[in-house]
Every structure is written in C-alpha cells, then in structure tokens.
C-alpha cells in the first residue's frame, strides 16, 4: 500500500497510456449469478485510484480477502498484488466485464473508474468515454447480472446556479464541467434503472477526499492533500486556488465508511438513492493555518489557475441532513482530527524515506 504513496501527484498531467477498446453493450437479459457464499463478492473498477485500495483493504477485513477484487487498466505495484486479487478490466470493454462478473461470481460492483474534474476538462472526449460510456456498460452489467451497484457522485455535480451554502440534497444541478455533467447523468440513470428495472443502485456525493497513503487523480480539491506533503518536504506550498475558496472536504476513513454503510443499509431506510455526505468545509487559508500549527515553518503562496473557476461553481457547504436522517450517517473527522492524522501518518513515512536514502548514499 505504502508504495502507492509514491505515485506522482502530478494530477492533471497523469497519463492514461493504455489503449481503449469499446464494444457495444449487448442488451439481452441473462440470469443472475449470485454467489451462495456468506459474503458478497465485490468488484472495484478503477481500483488503483485514490479511493480503491483503501476500500479493498476495508472490505477485505469484513468479507475476506478473496471476495474483494481490485481492477484497473494501470499497472499495480507488487504490494497491491500481494494484498489480494487484482485483475485488468477496461471499463470500455463490455464483453470482458461480463466475463469477469461471471467467472468471479460478482455480487457487488463498486464503480470508481473516472476522469476527475481537472483531468476531464483537459481531455473531454476521453472523459465522455470513460465517465459516460463506461457508466453505461456498468449499468447494463448490473442490470443483467442483478448486481448491487455503487457509483460515487461528487460536489462537482452541482453548479453556480445551485445554492452553495448550504447545498441541499435536492436542488438545481447545472454543472459546468464534463465531470459534473457525467456525474449528474450517472445519478439520473442509476435512479431510472432502480425505478424501471429494480436495479439496486446506490450513490453518495463525496466532497474532496483527503488521504495520506494514496494520491488524488487530478481534481480541483487536490491541493488539500498536496499541502501536507509540501509541509513535510519543501516547507513551501503553492496553492492554485484563492485563499478564501471554501469547499467541502472529507478524510478518507469517513468516505470509505460512508460507502460501506450505505451499501449495507436496508433498502427500507433509503428514501432516495443519491445522498450528499459531508464532514467539514474549509478554505486554503484555514487549512494552511491549521497545518502551520503543526509545521510552523510552512509557507504558502497563491498562483491561481483554471481550477479556480471550477471551485467557484461548486458548493461551499454541503447539507447532508438526509443521509444523517435516513441511514444514520455521522462523520468522525473535522479539520483538527484531519490535520493531526495526516501529519502523524506522514512524519514516519518521510523519516523512513530519509533514513533509507542516507543509507543508500553511505553504501555507495
Ligand atoms: N477523490 C475524490 O476526492 C473524489 C470525490 C468525489 C467523488 N469521487 C469519485 O470516486 C471515484 C474514485 O475516485 P478516485 O479519487 O479514486 O479517482 P482516481 O482518478 O484516483 O482513480 C480513477 C481510476 O480510474 C481508472 N481508469 C481510467 N480509465 C479507465 C478505464 N477505461 N477502465 C478502467 N479504469 C479506468 C484510472 O486508471 C484510475 O486508477 C470516481 O468516480 C470519482 O469521481 C472522488
Ligand atoms: C471533488 C471531487 O469530485 C474530486 N476531488 C475533484 O476535485 O474532481
């Protein structure tokens, strides 16, 4: 897991070098291939991104290692392969997805494959393919094989016409990024399939997710991860958002727990199928001040880029009262717990790296 930590934080520049194959979804109905095992068998698509490996680790402790299969189109590190099943799965290759679901007797599909907001704006055709065509494949697959399906949505599914503080669960959604457009499409299609075909579709709109052992894939909220690494390395963070840009954020443990909780919730508790979930909201300036308390020499400069426009169209504060009321959602990490957890986890990682590189130099 730790080696994921070394993955480039380059974000928007991250390349998707693999070829994309697409085969049209076949629309015949096949019978369910439910496992009769005690635990569901779960497939996580796009599982080598920021959220997937942590979710696999969490679900494997509950369902058993072999029941949770990570998949992606990028090359896994050796410790990913050592920690449980991993397979290649291109979300655009419907036939291959069918084979995987049948051969591995999949019951739950957690669909993480996506191009995030900033990467999506830099490659709209690819975002349309991965985020929209990929979703169509997943929806049809879940319908054909009667899979329980989780598709994450995002604060980015709202736009400037939405109320921004707070943003309620049900309100105007006119997002201005291809990422947001694809997520509204996913929400609507999932809810339609649920009503029309009885598909067990569940979705949470996540805030920006912050984690120390996996890196973000090129979103608008990535600065809130990068600042921790900069604090413990160069001591200087260059922020691409204005100091007062308030956005909803969440520590990864809360995010993954909310996902597990909604997947396990009895369907009678779900009055809707797409919920806002929230934990905290802060600005770069407020996060900088909180990190500086732990790393007093940290400096910040602001060099605003195109991500500011995206952030300015997103919610500032998320109203998640419906998730709290329906299935008992509660966050555990506020900004103080977040900062302490991130710094306490990263200090030994960087210390070990320093010791290892000194040992290497002395050995030469
Ligand atoms: N991280 C966040 O802050 C956040 C917030 C809200 C919602 N989400 C959603 O959660 C999900 C996971 O996010 P993440 O942060 O792990 O994303 P990420 O960008 O880190 O990972 C996405 C993964 O999808 C994979 N992928 C790309 N094209 C693919 C294809 N053709 N077939 C299969 N896989 C492909 C990539 O290789 C990558 O590993 C996404 O749907 C995202 O929209 C994330
Ligand atoms: C907010 C979320 O969807 C993602 N981190 C992004 O910024 O694109």
UniProtKB/TrEMBL annotation:
Residues 42-278 form the NAD-dependent epimerase/dehydratase domain. GO terms for biological process: L-threonine catabolic process. InterPro entries: Epimerase_deHydtase, NAD(P)-bd_dom_sf, NAD(P)_epim/dehydratase. It catalyses: L-threonine + NAD(+) = (2S)-2-amino-3-oxobutanoate + NADH + H(+). GO terms for molecular function: L-threonine 3-dehydrogenase activity. It is an enzyme of class 1 (oxidoreductase). Pathway: Amino-acid degradation; L-threonine degradation via oxydo-reductase pathway; glycine from L-threonine: step 1/2. It comes from the Eukaryota. Its EC number is 1.1.1.103. Belongs to the NAD(P)-dependent epimerase/dehydratase family. Catalyzes the NAD(+)-dependent oxidation of L-threonine to 2-amino-3-ketobutyrate, mediating L-threonine catabolism. This is L-threonine 3-dehydrogenase, mitochondrial. It comes from Tigriopus californicus. The lineage of its organism: Eukaryota, Metazoa, Ecdysozoa, Arthropoda, Crustacea.
């Amino acid at each position: 897991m730790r080696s994921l930590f070394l993955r480039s934080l380059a974000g928007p520049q991250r390349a998707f070098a693999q070829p994309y194959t697409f085969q049209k979804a076949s629309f015949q109905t096949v019978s369910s291939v439910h496992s009769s095992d005690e635990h569901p068998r779960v497939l996580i698509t796009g599982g080598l991104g920021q959220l997937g490996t942590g979710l696999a680790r969490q679900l494997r402790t509950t369902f058993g290692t072999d029941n949770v299969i990570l998949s992606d189109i990028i090359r896994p590190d050796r410790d990913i392969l050592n920690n449980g099943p991993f397979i290649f799965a291109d979300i655009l290759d419907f036939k291959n997805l069918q084979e995987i679901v049948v051969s591995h007797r999949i019951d739950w599909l957690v669909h993480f494959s996506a191009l995030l907001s900033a990467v999506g704006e830099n490659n709209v055709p690819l975002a349309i393919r991965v985020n929209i065509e990929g979703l169509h494949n997943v929806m049809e697959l879940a319908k054909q094989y009667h899979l329980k399906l989780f598709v994450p949505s995002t604060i980015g599914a709202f736009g400037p016409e939405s109320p921004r503080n707070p943003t309620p669960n049900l309100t105007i959604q006119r997002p201005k990024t291809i990422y947001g457009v694809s997520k509204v499409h996913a929400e609507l299609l999932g809810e339609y399939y649920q009503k029309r075909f009885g598909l067990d579709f569940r979705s949470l709109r996540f805030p920006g997710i912050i984690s120390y052992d996996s890196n973000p894939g090129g979103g608008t909220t990535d600065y809130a991860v990068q600042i921790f690494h900069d604090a413990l390395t160069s001591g200087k963070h260059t922020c691409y958002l204005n100091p007062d840009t308030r956005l909803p954020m969440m520590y990864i443990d809360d995010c993954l727990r909310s996902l597990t909780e909604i997947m396990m919730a009895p369907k009678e508790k779900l009055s809707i199928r797409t919920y806002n979930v929230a934990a905290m909201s802060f600005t770069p300036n407020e996060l900088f001040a909180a990190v500086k308390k732990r790393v007093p020499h940290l400096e910040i400069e602001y060099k605003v880029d195109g991500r500011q426009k995206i952030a300015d169209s997103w919610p500032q504060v998320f109203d998640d009262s419906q998730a709290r009321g329906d299935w008992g959602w509660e966050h555990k990490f506020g900004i103080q717990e977040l900062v302490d957890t991130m710094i306490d986890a990263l200090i030994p990682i960087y210390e070990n790296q320093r010791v290892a590189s000194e040992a290497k130099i002395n050995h030469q």
